[in-house]
Design goal:
Length: 296
């Protein structure tokens, strides 16, 4: 059995997410939706009633995404869990593409491919395309081809139901989930045809919040799991990322934006280090990013 687990919080577009899920194969699947707020939960209830969809709704305690995931891990009945968020849209046949690699019993986790819906003509849209198309996509292709550890995307992944639980103060829950499955000897697979459409931040404040949180998650690795993250550190990003970033530009304006991205990444790395050494609490770092939830 397959379980599709959707984590949401104040997501007006959650019905778009569910619409992109319900008609995908396999037809018989368990769908769980977790959210702490009544606005989102009521949207889900109305959607289920109008579309005659059997959904299991979980009201979580508002402690954050990792805590909501732990609730879903406990209640999921599926042997394979498809994990996604309430502010994205799954591409056609994405679930089928995610499930294909599990025919190999060594496969433990499969990552989908985030696709930015932001317009490339603005600086933040350009950054989102660069980081998804060049950074994340190429890195997952390369690392999985070498059977190395690389985090799967929290926007869309499928896992064998062997995870148990993750630390509830995880800032990078996707990386923690990937590592906990990989350390059991399971294989990480990347399925680039399993596309998930994502709206990324379109302003500086939201961009910093999101990237600061993500980088902070990698700095947590040793503290939470007793190991150092093998996938990301400042030196690796500086060495591998600079030429790739500058080479992505198609014109002078985009080249300037690429240079600014390098400076912006240094800025958020510094902020994340400061958060880490000052031992900021989970709720002080995991701040809402409103511009990613707009689908108008």
């Amino acid at each position: 059995m397959i379980t599709v687990a959707v984590v949401a919080f104040k997501d007006p577009g959650v019905t778009n997410t569910l619409a992109s899920i319900i008609n995908q194969e396999p037809a018989k699947k368990e769908i769980l939706v977790a959210a702490p707020d009544e606005v989102t939960l009521n949207l889900v209830r109305t959607f289920a009633k109008e579309n005659k969809v059997n959904l299991k709704i979980i009201k979580d305690l508002g402690k954050g995404k990792p805590a909501a995931l732990n609730l879903m891990f406990k209640q999921a009945k599926g042997d394979i869990l498809v994990l996604t968020d309430g502010d994205v849209i799954l591409g056609e046949s994405s679930i089928t593409e995610l499930l294909k690699p599990f025919s190999n019993l060594k496969t433990g986790i499969v990552s989908g491919k985030p696709v930015s819906v932001n317009a490339r003509r603005g600086i933040f849209g350009y950054w989102s395309h660069l980081l998804t198309e060049v950074g994340a996509h190429r890195e997952r292709l390369y690392q999985t081809s070498k059977n190395k550890f690389v985090p799967c995307s929290g926007y869309l992944m499928a896992i064998r139901n062997v995870i148990g639980a993750i630390p509830e103060n995880s800032l990078a829950d996707d990386a923690i989930i990937t590592y906990k499955i990989w350390e059991k000897g399971h294989k990480i697979v990347y399925a680039p045809d399993a596309k998930v459409y994502v709206r990324y931040p379109d302003n500086w404040e939201d961009w910093v919040k999101q990237k600061r949180r993500a980088i902070g998650g990698y700095l947590q690795f040793k503290e939470l799991l007793g190991v150092k993250s093998e996938s990301r550190n400042f030196a690796q990003e500086a060495l591998r990322g600079t030429l790739v970033t500058l080479g992505y530009a198609k014109n002078t304006k985009e080249f300037v934006w690429s240079c600014l991205l390098l400076l912006a990444r240094i800025h958020v790395w510094l902020l994340a280090y400061l958060d880490f050494v000052s031992k900021k609490q989970f709720k002080q770092i995991w701040l809402p990013v409103q511009s990613t939830k707009r689908w108008d």
